[in-house]
Write a structure and sequence with these properties.
Keywords: Membrane, Transmembrane, Transmembrane helix. By secondary structure, the protein is of the alpha+beta class. The protein is 29% helix and 26% strand. The N terminus is likely disordered.
């Protein structure tokens, strides 16, 4: 028998498993990696059921978050409104309400006052203890004129209120003034002085607002009326 020549040998069906590996020739349908390691296997398709489960979980979490946010908002809305704070003046032996947006410790425009509150812009109320006076009204008039000279500096000052006052256990007198100016820069100012006796050491309350307006007057009245 004649040996078959190498060129006439039939192709080995397992040539891709032989060593050294056969180098693919042009026109082969498969890339070298397929010849050496076998035909590539397509990656498995993503299971549609798993994706749906993930979406369901995410939607459930979003719904729970929305419900919790609504519950928190409802709880905050149902909370009672915080009552306005009070300021205690231990030297004068009194306390009084602090109007909304006001703060304590505002710098007093004049000295000797033991506590000062205000809105930081237009309105200020000052409190201090004083010695007893035999004539409450006369002392109130004297104090209002003194603080009008110190604080108002008006070209024309008018008395807008002059009356007795009762605040809790205390009684006394109050006097209010309005200052106007001839220049076009300064707007009218308001000054209220209250002298209170009884229920402890006598105290003087001075409230000032510039410009004068109904809101500032009402806030000063709130402080004086709430003094205890």
């Amino acid at each position: 028998m004649h040996e078959r020549s190498r060129g006439s040998d039939p192709p080995d069906e397992r040539s891709h498993l032989t060593w050294p590996p056969r180098i693919p020739e042009p026109g082969d349908d498969l890339p070298p990696s397929a010849r050496w390691y076998g035909t590539p296997v397509a990656p498995p398709e993503r299971e549609p059921g798993r994706l749906r489960r993930v979406l369901v979980v995410l939607l459930s979490l979003a719904a729970v978050g929305a419900v919790l946010a609504g519950v928190v908002a409802l709880a905050l809305w149902a909370l009672p409104t915080t009552p306005p704070g009070r300021v205690t003046d231990p030297v004068a032996g009194v306390s009084y309400p602090l109007p909304e947006s006001w703060s304590a410790g505002t710098k007093a425009p004049v000295t000797a006052f033991t506590s000062v509150v205000g809105d930081g812009a237009n309105t200020t109320v000052m409190v201090m203890p004083v010695e007893p006076a035999s004539d409450v009204r006369a002392t109130t008039v004297e104090l209002s004129e003194l603080y009008a000279r110190l604080l108002l500096h008006g070209d024309e000052v008018k008395v807008v209120d002059d009356t007795e006052i009762s605040v809790g256990p205390r009684t006394g007198y109050t006097r209010s003034l309005r200052a106007e100016y001839r220049d076009v820069v300064n707007r009218p100012s308001y000054l209220r002085v209250a002298f209170l006796v009884g229920g402890g050491r006598p105290v003087v309350v001075v409230g000032m607002a510039q410009p004068d307006d109904p809101i500032s007057r009402a806030e000063i009245n709130t402080v004086i009326a709430g003094l205890r």
